[in-house]
Amino acid sequence: MSEKEYVHDQLDNEVNAIGGRYTLTEEIKLPFKEKVVLYLTGHAHFDSTCCGAGGCSYAVVQGFIHKWKEKKNDEGYDISRIEPITDRDIRAEIQRLIMKDALIGQVVFVS
Questions:
Q1: Which pLDDT belongs to residue 52?
Q2: Which candidate, 39, 35, 44, 36, places its Cα nearest to that of 6?
Q3: How many domains does the chain divide into?
Q4: Is the C-alpha dihedral spanning 25, 47, 107, 111 positive or negative?
Q5: CA-to-CA distance for 37 and 34, rounded, in angstroms?
Q6: Range of the domain at 63
């Protein structure tokens, strides 16, 4: 188990990127067996690319929560202690749970 610090992002803040823009919309705590998974949902719009336009909804799984918002950084953002999820079978099970109840097109796991 290797924990890492997770700095909670500002939600509903549109970020412009080279091919369009994206927004993180929600932080979700998902009970999973004896642990709790932290993931974020968001949506992206691709409207300034050379190959067309489109969009998608997504989830970014940060990992298992060990300490929730235990401190703040210098900018005032909360910091939690998170254990990344590396096991492929556990990832697949969590992905199924997330996609079952939400209109999520893609689930990405942070290592």
A1: 66
A2: 39
A3: 1
A4: negative
A5: 10
A6: 4-109
